[in-house]
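Help wanted!
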Amino acid sequence: MRVALFVTCVTDTLYPGTGRATVDLLERLGVAVDFPLAQSCCGQPQFNTGYRRETEPLVRRHVEAFRDYDHVVTPSGSCAAMVRENHPRVAARGGDAALERVATEVASRTYELSEFLVDVLGVTDVGAYYPHTVTYHPTCHGMRTLGLGDRPRRLLENVRGLELVELPAADQCCGFGGTFAVKNAAVSAAMGADKARNIENTGAEAVCAVDNSCLMHIGGTLSRRGSTVRAVHLAEILAATEDGTERAAEDGTRRSTR
Amino acid sequence: MSGRVHLGMPAFPEAAASATRNARLRGNLSHATGTIRAKRAQAVAELSDWDALRAAGAAVKDRTLRHLDHYLERLEEAVTAAGGTVHWAADAAEANRIVTDLVRATGETEVVKVKSMATQEIDLNAALERAGIRAYETDLAELIVQLGDDLPSHILVPAIHRNRGEIRDIFREEMGRWGRPAPKGLTDDPAELAEAARLHLREKFLRAKVGVSGANFMVAETGTLVVVESEGNGRMCLTLPETLISVVGIEKVVPTWQDLEIFLQLLPRSSTAERMNPYTSMWTGTTDSETADGPRVFHLVLLDNGRTDALADTVGRQALRCIRCSACLNVCPVYERAGGHAYGSAYPGPIGAILTPQLRGTASELDASLPYASSLCGACYEVCPVAIDIPQVLVHLRERVVEGGEVTVRGQRTTIRPARGHAAERAAMRAARWAFDHPRALLAGQRLASRTRRLHPRRLPGPGRAWTATRDLPTVPAESFRDWWRRTRNVRGEARGEGGGR
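Answered by r_m:
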């Protein structure tokens, strides 16, 4: 089984701890992971802002980088959704039938991390240890486009030491939305503030999600409010073990470190 | 009277930003949408075959739209055979002219109106006013909007932005200028407010000789029009006046009564969270009996106003499936915070964000900003009873805004230029694409950012300020994932495909 990690540009550049955690976790579960260096960005920022023509070369690059693998795993709900739902559309709209065919193939073998764990590896207990109170925010693309359902929650429920607390209005968008966050900053901030308030009211120490771009917005909002709640990617919780390989901390990117 | 218009409104982000600062508006909206949201979910969950109904609704609409010319002609034949007269209006001006002339021909100077989105879209009331004809809105919420010299902010609940206290004040101050004044000592008790409206409207119903309506559906096989409503005001307007003029968008036609059955299940549960709405009025042509209910003269004005142009767009045309239930507004987190007025159109919310730029084009700053009035969270698509993939159409229209391209305008294929004001963004997107297509360059950039990480400002200037005004920036890590992988897995030199280009 040839498994490739599609780490995503946001995680690569800003949250490498999530990428390392994903590698640790998969290797611990006996999966040999490869990281094709030709990968970069799935083109979601360009595509979602309307720049379809700028997206096409990135689709081409993505399918070239990943076409030879049996499975592609990514720690991002929205990037998985971009690959699965929109890569074939971009190729089709560009009139490239060959690209559309390969993009559709790669899309069918692309999994968000919790899907890969639960559906392909068939595990819900990954042997993790995370002695904290955690609330879970289901991201929009993970919940609605991919239909992740209770997969992330089942994985979290099996983490030793972890106490999972309900997030009120969990299905409400956090307000990130890519360029929406700056194009409609006031509405985005209002949505973020409501999400942050709901998170704070749970009393959890950490908020967990399957997407670092949403977590960048949620964590940045929490931190600006002076909140002590940390934003943590699911992979980092699942990679943590009793002998202390909790890795998120060293990035410091989502704590109020300054 | 209806002195307010949508013309000259600011682009969505500015209007929405000012709405987010209005605490009362946000309170009114989040309370109202939160309540209806939960009720809708419950009403839909009762039906085990909802998904099949939804798929059937979408399929019937798609098939009808593919053969729209055929069904419209069948409808025209059937309406004519039943004693009605059919008029075709290419745009708002033509529709307004037709209706005005028809009212004038009756010699009347006032009409009673059933709540109708099509007549909001064409701003019929203002056109009638210019011709010296008073149009009285009889739906409770439309009445509140009209008395308050306001604009509707919701498809189903046009006064959703008002609370009880505000409505009481409007009734007290304005009802007397329009007819029967509000009862003395009126409070904000909902039953008292409803009674005040009932008394005020009753004299209008009994006096009116001309009614104006829209329709939720038109059944082609029999020429029957259908209005679903909750208050009974529609039933009054459709049965009492001698002359009835209905202005209906051409996409409202369904082929048969069997098709109608699907929509009469989908619509009430999606809009008011009811199993069945209280009043469903159906009429076929005219009645010639003195004692029968219903109009003796019936005119149907079929409105295009950009619909066939939207139909020519293979992605955007799904917006024409819309049955105006407003479920997408009620679940939309952006609508909930921005309010309906920020959309600058009779059609607010997610459906408005894809319908308005198709009906009006994307030339104005406001219309070009509408496709961006969404975080693409997908809640609208999830609840849409006719499965309109609103996020897909939003992105499609964003492409039209920033890249231009082929569109249909009044039946003519036209190439439009990209909208103004996107040059900096386009350059940034292009630069990002180049970097992402050259991973070695991306790596070099990541390394530079890492080396200078202690120097990065906490607040950004220029467009970046929109982020840092309310959110901290992530700190750049000492080492990117890519670099960590190269270091720990002993990758040396340039790997395949890393350099860029192919």
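OP: Thanks! One thing I noticed: Residues 137 and 209 of chain A are 5 Å apart (CA to CA).
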